[in-house]
């Protein structure tokens, strides 16, 4: 059976046949090679059927022969639609013009947005807009004429206070994004009053004050963030109780000094008693295959008799077309033979290794200038076949850090 | 006398052809000029090797075949397609009968 779509392409007519000899008409039409389809009897002696427009001429004599009456009720399909539009050329022209205008309208920049996620305080938005317009980006300009990189460079040259400029074009909208430079806040100025505070917990070992007033003593335990040398200097010697002479106000200085303290670090590590290691023997072989949606077709099989091996896969793809991901890939699998080696080191060896690992971890954490004073290794309970150790490292280091203060706080 | 002879001759030729199709495993509708009828549920019947349409109404369709008539009854029957050797009927088919 010929599909309806094909008939739609070729064009068809719907005819209405009235009379008793419809069956005879159908048989005669068949003999003459006139194709009829979708024959349906309507109430009464009306029969509706479809045929090709050019066959209708040949159907006429048969109709007369079988004493039927025939009438065309509908014409359908592409040829008739084309003829219809040919008679209405203005409408077609209008539709084409509409599409053209729409396309033309979308090839211009209509909007220029200036956005600053961090806000603008040093540069004015109008200035950016004006500069961008001079560089060729303004509403009404043809989209392909805008050189985004040029605009960006122009803006960055013109406004040194901008740390970053981004120019993007989305459809008919151009977006200029700018971020201003952040000027260093005055609080971080080197001359402002400051405390020296502890960066870590520890026990103060020695304290050397260059400026300011010490508030901790040697042997005292301090916590992280605690003030060690105060920038607020009382006008009296520390022996005189505070507040006895309110006439002289407290002086604020930038405290300086060295506060050396004992600090403890702890790390736990575990190590197995026997260690299985893979060692490549240097022998390798490869397999080529094509992978298609989780199905794999092997092109070249690897020749190998390895006991143990590691596989490395390399994929090659065809270039992506548009945004359709291609699911076909060429896979090269390389098999590297490996030897399994078991190293038995026992509980003592494992403890040593664990201690080494834990110590390394602590050493990586230590600040510069820290001096290791003591190291203790304790074996702690662990799973069967492993040894777990806790390593305690004691250091002597400067824990002071300058933190600015505001006088009224 | 002549007609009887012809009849016997015809029967013999038919027998020979039938045994030949069995021997060569040929499709019988090709050798014996029989209609091939395909039904799709109750909604479609396809008759190949027909000889024309005798009667067509929405409830009854008679199709001429080599050995007589094929009467298809049902309702809402529509001739979807008609070619020189094939008819496709759509609708609600209730029965198909052979009449000599």
What are the key terms here?
heterodimer; A: about 400 residues; alpha+beta; Alpha-Beta Plaits; Ubiquitin-like (UB roll); 4 domains; 5-stranded antiparallel sheet; 8 helices; elongated; B: about 100 residues; Immunoglobulin-like; 2 domains; 6-stranded antiparallel sheet; about 25% helix
Strand percent estimate of chain A = 35-45%
Uncertain spans of chain A = none
> Rounded to an integer, what's the Rg of chain B over CA atoms?
16 Å
Q: How many beta-strand elements of chain B?
A: 6
Query: In this structure, how is the largest beta sheet of chain B organized?
Result: 6 strands, antiparallel
Sheet with the most strands: spatial strand order of chain A: 11-9-15-21-20
The amount of helix of chain B comes to 25-40%
The total of helices of chain A stands at 8
- Percent of residues in helices of chain A comes to 10-25%
Average pLDDT, all residues of chain B: 87
Structural class of chain B: alpha+beta
Could you name the ranges of chain B where pLDDT drops below 50 across 5 or more consecutive residues? none
Can you lay out the helices and strands and say which pair or pack?
The complex is a heterodimer of chains A (409) and B (100).
Chain A: H1 4-10, E1 12-18, H2 22-32, E2 36-41, E3 46-51, H3 56-65, E4 69-76, H4 78-87, H5 89-105, E5 111-115, H6 125-134, H7 148-158, E6 162-170, E7 173-180, E8 194-198, E9 202-211, E10 213-214, E11 221-222, E12 227-230, E13 232-233, E14 251-252, E15 256-272, E16 274-292, E17 295-300, E18 309-317, E19 328-344, H8 346-365, E20 371-380, E21 386-398, E22 400-404
Parallel strand pairs in A: 5-7
Antiparallel strand pairs in A: 1-3, 1-4, 2-3, 6-7, 8-12, 8-22, 9-11, 9-15, 10-12, 13-14, 15-21, 16-17, 16-19, 18-19, 20-21
Helix pairs in contact in A: 2-3
Chain B: H1 2-24, H2 28-31, E1 36-40, E2 44-48, E3 52-56, E4 60-65, E5 68-83, E6 86-99
């Amino acid at each position: 059976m010929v599909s309806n779509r094909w008939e739609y392409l070729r064009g068809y007519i719907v005819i209405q046949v009235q009379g008793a000899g419809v069956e005879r008409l159908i048989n005669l039409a068949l003999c003459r090679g006139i194709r009829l389809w979708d024959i349906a009897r309507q109430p009464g002696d009306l029969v509706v059927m479809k045929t090709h427009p050019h066959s209708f001429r040949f159907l006429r004599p048969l109709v007369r022969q079988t004493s039927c009456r025939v009438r065309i009720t509908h014409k359908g399909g592409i040829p008739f639609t084309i003829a219809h539009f040919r008679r209405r050329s203005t409408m077609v022209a209008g539709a084409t013009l509409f599409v053209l205008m729409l396309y033309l309208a979308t090839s211009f920049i209509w909007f220029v947005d200036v956005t600053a996620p961090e806000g603008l305080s040093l540069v004015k938005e109008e200035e950016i807009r004006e500069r961008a317009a001079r560089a060729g980006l303004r509403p009404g300009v043809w989209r392909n004429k805008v050189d985004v990189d040029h605009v960006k460079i122009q803006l960055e040259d013109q406004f040194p206070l901008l740390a970053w400029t981004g120019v993007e074009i989305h459809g008919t909208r151009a977006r200029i994004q700018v971020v201003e430079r952040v000027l260093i806040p005055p609080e971080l100025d080197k001359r402002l009053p400051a405390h020296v505070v502890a960066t870590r917990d520890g026990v103060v070992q020695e304290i050397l004050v260059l400026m300011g007033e010490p508030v901790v003593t040697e042997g005292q335990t301090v916590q992280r963030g605690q003030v060690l040398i105060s920038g607020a200097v009382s006008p009296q010697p520390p022996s005189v109780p505070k507040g006895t002479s309110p006439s002289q106000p407290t002086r604020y200085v930038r405290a300086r000094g060295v506060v050396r303290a004992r600090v403890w670090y702890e790390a736990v590590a575990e190590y197995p008693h026997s260690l299985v290691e893979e060692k490549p023997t240097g022998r390798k072989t490869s397999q080529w295959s094509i992978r298609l949606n989780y199905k794999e077709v092997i092109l070249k099989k690897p020749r190998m008799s390895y006991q143990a091996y590691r596989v490395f896969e390399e994929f090659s793809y065809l270039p992506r077309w548009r945004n359709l991901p291609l699911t076909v890939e060429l896979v090269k699998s390389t098999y590297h033979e490996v030897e399994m080696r078991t190293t038995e080191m026992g509980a003592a060896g494992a403890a040593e290794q664990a201690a080494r690992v834990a110590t390394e971890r602590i050493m990586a954490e230590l600040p510069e200038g820290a001096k290791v004073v003591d190291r203790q290794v304790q074996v702690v309970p662990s799973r069967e076949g492993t040894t777990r150790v806790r390593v305690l490292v004691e250091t002597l280091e400067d824990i002071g850090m300058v933190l600015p203060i505001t006088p009224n706080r | 006398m002549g007609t009887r002879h012809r009849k016997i001759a015809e029967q013999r030729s038919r027998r020979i052809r039938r045994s030949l199709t069995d021997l060569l495993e040929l499709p019988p509708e090709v050798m014996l000029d029989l209609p091939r009828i395909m039904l799709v549920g109750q909604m479609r019947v396809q008759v190949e090797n027909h000889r024309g349409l005798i009667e067509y109404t929405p409830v009854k369709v008679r199709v001429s075949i080599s050995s007589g008539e094929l009467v298809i009854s049902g309702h809402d029957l529509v001739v979807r397609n008609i070619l020189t050797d094939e008819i496709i009927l759509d609708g609600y088919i209730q029965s198909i009968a052979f009449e000599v």
